[in-house]
Amino acid sequence: MVKALIAGTIRADHALPTGIALLRKGKSAIDAVEATVRLVEDNEDDWTVGLGGLPNLLGEVELDASIMDGKTLRAGAVAGIKHYKNPISIARKVMEETPHILLVGEGAELFARVMGFQETPLLTQTARDIHQDFLQKKGIVKYPYDTEDTLKLKERYYKSFQHLVKDEKLMSWYRRYVETTHGTVNVLAVDKEQHICCGVSTSGLSFKFPGRAGDSPVIGAGNYADDRYGAAACVGTGELVIRLSLARIAVYELSKGATVEEAATTAISSLRDLLPDKGSVSIIVLDKAGNVCGACNWQDYYFWVATEDNPKPQKQKCIFVDLKSEVNGVGYHR
Fold first, then answer.
1. What average pLDDT does range 293-318 have in this prediction?
2. Is 181 marked active-site?
């Protein structure tokens, strides 16, 4: 019999104990996923999800999220949320209270208000400072609130858009920036009743074009769950993930009898179909037996897993898939 399990990307490690505690008490996978993702969304020190997420080019934070129930194949998603910090919960309401799957922009916000969600300013002082320094080409600026970790994170972001700071043409820079910058939280769970749920939340590409939505709210691309086979969720260059319907590819591979390792590497190997277009993508795959694997096309990336028997989250390394090699997976051939 499959025991309760929850897995998440590196941004979810501090929140997974809450999710596994709920699962051990007999709560549903949906409850565990939502609660876990909410904690990540509430973390102001995470600049890629929820409250504290970095803004678009106009200085506005736009949040996307989706959740999918593997028991019923029902799903809910929102995109372009500007005034509510927990889009994962709004997405769940879309799934459970409406006949729809995806609500965007003003419509999604109206729905959130009707459902009783409280408006919250999303742009923190840290995110505002980073945005202004970016526009004014100041480079990395140290503020009194900065720590060694935040300075390292700033350095990573500024390296990603240093071409713009050097007056490169906007679209030329923007294309390169999109290829290397990403941040999303994925959480997948299986409960004691052997039902599966998958949730994804993000503030999207930092300094993105206003209105841009990536793969996170797109069911089949950034998120997919099916009790019969398993679930998958993605982090990375959303445009590539959407073009391939990457999460669905992984679950389809599971349906054919592939292991989680095979499904994950096959999904990432499918990026070869889009070459020479570039981008970084990671996927986590969970099967109905409770096996979990991650794969990505860059090295040294990890995810976390907590189980009913071992509730302390354990760090696991993703399989590196070298897209220049045919060794790792065969890809999804059309």
1. 95
2. no
